[in-house]
């Protein structure tokens, strides 16, 4: 149920991902939209998504570590 955020461009692009690594939302500030630089906007979105997915992975690992007490359990993807 927890949501993490990835952002880029000083926060002009934000991506929200839950602990299951499902995208929950994308916010793009108007100043990030330049019709003459679509590639730049795509890069900002990609960077924000990578940050959000990394934050979701870290959240998952942290929460699983609490449950397992840091044990490396076979078959649990650790």
Q: Could you please describe the fold and organization of this structure?
A:
The chain is α+β, with helices and mostly antiparallel strands. Helix content is 40%, strand content 23%. The chain has one helix spanning 38-68, and strands at 3-8, 13-18, 23-28. It has a 3-stranded antiparallel sheet with strand order 1-2-3. The longest helix has 31 residues, at 38-68. It starts with a strand and ends in a 10-residue tail after the last helix. The mean pLDDT is 89.
What brief labels describe this structure?
1 helix, alpha+beta, elongated, three-stranded antiparallel β-sheet, 3 strands, 78 residues
Helicity level, as a percent range? 25-40%
Output the number of helix runs. 1
Q: What Rg do the Cα atoms give?
A: 16 Å
Structural class call reads alpha+beta
Mean pLDDT: 89
**Secondary-structure element string:** EEEH
Task: Name the strands of the widest sheet in spatial order.
Answer: 1-2-3
Distance between the termini: 21 Å
Tell me the fraction of residues in β-strands, as a range: 15-25%
Residue windows where pLDDT falls under 50 for at least 5 positions: none
Number of strands: 3
- Overall geometry: elongated
What composes the largest sheet?
Answer: 3 strands, antiparallel
């Amino acid at each position: 149920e927890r949501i993490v955020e990835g952002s880029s461009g000083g926060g002009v692009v934000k991506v929200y991902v839950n602990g299951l690594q499902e995208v929950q939302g994308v916010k793009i500030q108007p100043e990030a939209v330049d019709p003459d630089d679509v590639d730049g906007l795509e890069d900002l979105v990609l960077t924000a998504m990578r940050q959000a997915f990394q934050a979701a992975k870290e959240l998952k690992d942290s929460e699983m570590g609490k449950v397992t007490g840091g044990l490396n359990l076979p078959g649990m993807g650790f």
